[in-house]
Amino acid sequence: MSVKKEMLGILGGMGPEATSVLYKKIIDKTEVTCDQDHINILIYSHAEIPDRTACILEGKTDYLWDVLGNDIDMLKKAGCKYLAVPCNTSHYFADKFNEKMDGNFINMIEEASKYAKKRNLKKVGVMATTGTVKSDLYKKELNKVGIEAVYPEEDIQKLVMSLIYDDIKRGGKGDRHVFKEISEAFKNMGCEAVILACTELSVFAQNYELNADYYIDAMECLSRACIEKCGGKYLD
Fold this sequence. Notes:
Largest sheet: 4 strands, parallel
Order of helices and strands: EHEHHEHHEHHEHHEHEH
Structural class: alpha/beta
Strand order of the largest sheet: 5-4-6-7
Strand content: 5-15%
Distance between the termini: 21 Å
Radius of gyration: 17 Å
Shape: globular
């Protein structure tokens, strides 16, 4: 007996390339024998959504929520049962997302934290935007499952932001030397693994082969949850 499929809504555009990476991950990781085995997805790549980090740091969260909330209403009215948002920083509004979706928001930060717990990790680095770091989004979830979250020092955080904003968001592949310097800083702080906690870093992971034992791609965790919750079969 086949499992009932539910429509997945993806609110993307934050950035557009990251949204395409999530879609490809879902396609590549769904076990199929024909087109009909894939899950049904409606993607809205709203590229004009204001910058999430800037809005959080500048106290413009009400304005940002108005935009995001309207977009979610549109996806819900179009028949989407579940929602995924391939932007870690926007998970500042995770509770509101979940409320709008009647409890059917697929939380990327929760999924990545559960995966880290499954691996019995105790100390994990978080490579993310300053908006995600300042909001303490990952620390809250990781602490819930008994994992210590580690954020980089200010000088290393500046390198993370430069890699994301000055490189990948501008269409670059990502500077491997900068990434290595950031990674070394996490290793020096005793991190057993590092979560790629920005979807632009998921783009970086697509461009270069990374050690899957050390780097946890939050969007990979999200893709698995999307497939399984919407009636597909995840390809291990």
